[in-house]
Amino acid sequence: MNQAQPKPPQSPTALSRPFWEGAAAGRLMIQRCAACGKLRHYPRLLCDACYSDAVEWIEASRRGTIHSWTVAHHAFHPAFKDELPYTLVTVDLEEGVRALGRWTGEPPAIGQPVTGAFVARPDGVDLVFAPSTA
Amino acid sequence: MSLRDRSCVTGIGETAYLRGATKSAFELQVEASLKAIADAGLTPKDIDGVIPIGIVSGTADDFIENFGLPDLRFSAQVPHGGASPAMALQAAAMAVANGVCSHVLITFGRNISAVAAGGNKAGARIHNMPQFHYVTEFEHPMGASAPAQLYAPMARRHMELYGTTVEQFGEVAVACREHALLNGNAVMKKPITLEDHRQSRMIADPFRLLDCSLESDGGAAVVVSSAERARDLRHRRVFISGVAAGHPDSPGSITQRPDMTSLGLAKAAPRAFRMAGVTPADIDVAEIYDCFTYAVIRQLEDMGFCAKGEGGPFVSGGRLRIGGALPTNTHGGLLSQAHVWGLNHVVELARQLRGDGGRAQVAGAEVGVVTGYGDMGDGALAIMRRE
Fold it and tell me: Are B257 and B377 in contact (CB under 8 A)?
């Protein structure tokens, strides 16, 4: 097993740089249209409601509910082979957009309240969700 | 003016489907193209329109150069993965119905064995494609890399909301395999049972190995001609009666799609059925894009063969098998015949409607539907009928 195989890189673009800089600092940043206020994620050039390209970035709560999930049992990229099986969750964030993240522990359930945190990895950070504590 | 019955699929051609082909993708594409042109009763120089599927093998210019096409009047690219063949039928139908050209060659070839041998497997390949840029930037680094992993949450949610079961996925896999065994040209050659499906290894929960389509090599091609010109060609006319395309919201990211259980086909299907003047109850045979078993169940719902959430029960009890309520993927599909982006589905529907389906022929097949589904949810369908 080649432990040194790097994962696919996290490569910010001019459009997404505030997201990745926020992630590195533990903050989930999403776009808000500076003209009409509509929130959007993943980062896009234009607001699809008012077509403004004026944008500001806000910090999202990282809280939401499970929309769906999968457990990977086959590595389609060699860097993930040693982590099998691993769970991926799609989360409806309180802000009305979604996030994809990793999951640890008992299998998730659709609708389950969850909270995410950015966890360091050698070349960046992963968003990892866990059940919300009451 | 409606496109209804103004164009026909006049020629069909396929190479042998296999793994480990020694011919290049373009050689396979040329072989299938020459077969389709000859099948129509045409010569290569009669072709005046070309739509290569994907930019994975020959370009339109390559066909001018190799066939000596004297006057190519129409070419197009339809960059929507597995939806491209059915979308290409739409483009071709528009072109020939409006006199832009007379005979459009829709053609595909791939040698995925050669590509994969270079380490470029499905989980890596899509990240070279611009339409996957959101996945590449935000999901691939976390290990959500390949279509199986990206589609699995759609299937999981369908199971949780509607009670769709592993056995119902298995019904799709078993029907396709049974049909592939009737076909002398299928990659998979051994029968499977529902239990084999359930016991196959998990790939991306809920998808097991036998829920996933094949990686295989081969070429396929069809010729679309104007209904008038088709009158003089070799075969009984097979009309394109209705054809339409549609795209899901958030096409580039399933994660962000408002309803991840809805596909572009849901928007397209009413348009195509209206154009054709038929309903799902009129369909005798269906060739449904089957990248995963779940995709067939989902598309049956999107086309209105059953209500949303009823796709699982709809496929149960062998209803997709020949002799069942809706014989589906009579060639074995992407799951068991070959993966040539679904152009084999178009070929098979034309073959069925000509009555040339051999051991897989659906008795009395007069009206059928073929779908395409690509790049995470783009959809298209064509409803065809025999003269």
Answer: yes
